[in-house]
Design a protein that fits this description.
Length: 156
Amino acid sequence: MSKSVSNERNILCDDYSVVGAGQKRSWAAKIDKQLIRQVLLYAVIGGTSALLDFILFTLFYKQFGINEYLANGISIHAGIAMSFILNRKFNFKKNDRILFRSISFYLTGLFGLALSQGILWLGTIMLLPVITVKLISIFIVAAIQFVVNKIITFGK
């Protein structure tokens, strides 16, 4: 149901903000500010966690000669743990249902691990550089995980 009301001067929009007659709201003004903040902070936290993931993966794979799949599994677990702690405390600010939230976040992370492993496998059979494929997988997995964590893990 629309909340739009108009007169000669103003328009009351769905979010109860007032826009002058004849003015169009920009796409940015239509997006919930809290959602923008969460996406940006999720990206920063995710970037930090992905950096930890990437550094550990590269260290285990290049320096210690550990198989790329085992190195990927280890590095992703470290990234998941760091990401949950930071997102719970600083982004979604949820202090209740910690056991449920941690299990949900971890299962979402494990789904991301499986997806990342699949992308890594696909890239290697296509003879693409392993490090490049790993970087691509991080972006794909992060986008999917944000949606799942926003709705399920850190929802009401």
